[in-house]
Amino acid sequence: MKKLILSLTLALALGAALAFAEDNAPATEEISAAGKYPLKVCPVSGETLGEMGDPVVKVYDGREVKFCCKNCVGTFEKDLASSMQILDNKIYEAEKAAYPLKTCVVSGETLGEMGDPYPYMYKNQLVEFCCQNCVSTFEKDPDKYLSMIYAAHAKSVEPEESKE
To answer: What proportion of the chain, given as a percentage, has pLDDT over 70?
Structure first.
């Protein structure tokens, strides 16, 4: 758990300096590179997104965040660093069970052989490494490694027709 908190704090700290450079309109290329939005609930209220109309979408440092209403945006932005940490934790909890790889995306080592996997949040995508040292290699070419994660996820999700 300490590694999780440390890694998510590190990821947040790296993006915190740029987090205040908010765009009102999503940067489509940046967001689509990070995959689909991983949460079904508002990170502030916990309300299911879409129950109160279309979600309010904001972008912080290239990361899309969806809210149930405009009021939650203000609450989220009061302490942006803390709110981003909470968002990371919620995404981790939502994505952990469905993480498609059993090996480190960088080294190929089996996750867990070197201790607990090192979780890292890239934009809104959970990436698990065998160790913290693999993060710098990942950051040199994140699209290369993300495509491996997305391909593994697509492969792990069987179409309904093939199950029959």
So the answer is: 74
User: Per the structure, how many domains does the chain have?
Assistant: 1
- DSSP assigned state of 106: T
- What pLDDT does 156 receive? 79
User: Using CA atoms, how far apart are residues 53 and 70, in angstroms rounded to an integer?
Assistant: 11
Within a domain: residue 89? yes
Q: Please give the average per-residue pLDDT across 100-107, as a whole number.
A: 96
| pLDDT of residue 5 exceeding 80 | no
DSSP string, 148-159: HHHHHHHHHS--
Length of the chain: 164
Dist. CA 16–CA 102, nearest whole Å: 30
Structural domain contains residue 162: no
Q: Is the pLDDT of residue 15 over 50?
A: no
Range of the domain at 46: 2-157
Give residue 98's Cα distance to chain centre: 13
Q: Identify whether the C-beta of residue 22 lies closer than 8 Å to the C-beta of residue 60.
A: yes
